[in-house]
Design a protein that fits this description.
The protein is about 80% helix and about 0% strand. It is built from 4 helices and no strands. It is rod-shaped.
């Protein structure tokens, strides 16, 4: 082979390598909407839980206000005998204690929400690193040492980091296009400890 033919072969081979690398990158890019849909589903769950907790807290605070107002009216009644007053105060105290516990439970969900948000941020960071890796792969496609981790493996890692079953079910629903009501073990009223 002449030097000219060698150069022509190198250019042809380089073009083929670039085409293959570009096809791999395009294939990875086509998977990003699925990855993003998993993240959207997780964020949707966070928003729904946060809204529910906020409404629960607001409702409990209104009820507490009403119990305190009712107790104030009762205490101001001059015709009330002391035994009835003590009984009313005890009943009100018990109702207030129950409501405070409910408010406390609603507030404690914030730790779960924080963890869910951290998972989403971590997944976004993983996607950012993946995008940088794809750009490096495309730029250095001829270097045999230049590789990237497929997005499907990133999704598997995101899945493995979940601590709550509801997160795993949500993730699987997006990937499997399941109806949320048909997911195994799905329950809107289930309390999950982590």
């Amino acid at each position: 082979m002449s030097p000219f033919e060698d150069a022509q072969y190198d250019v042809s081979q380089s073009g083929t390598n670039y085409t293959l690398a570009a096809e791999q990158v395009v294939s990875e890019l086509e998977q990003i909407p699925t990855y993003n849909n998993v993240l959207r589903q997780q964020l949707g769950s966070i928003v729904a839980e946060t809204e529910k907790a906020a409404f629960d807290i607001a409702s409990q605070l209104q009820t507490i206000d009403q119990v305190v107002a009712d107790l104030s009216v009762l205490v101001e009644k001059p015709s009330l005998n002391p035994d009835e007053l003590v009984a009313a105060v005890r009943e009100s105290n018990q109702r207030l204690a129950d409501m405070f516990m409910t408010v406390l439970a609603s507030v404690q969900f914030q730790d779960v929400t924080r963890q869910q948000i951290e998972h989403v941020v971590g997944a976004l960071d993983r996607l950012d690193r993946h995008s940088i890796g794809l750009a490096k792969y495309l730029k250095n496609h001829e270097d045999a040492n230049t590789e990237f981790q497929p997005l499907s493996e990133h999704l598997n890692q995101v899945f493995s980091e979940y601590v709550m079953e509801s997160q795993r079910e949500s993730h699987s629903q997006v990937l499997d296009n399941l109806d949320p009501d048909s997911a195994p073990g799905a329950s809107a009223n289930k309390v999950e400890l982590f």
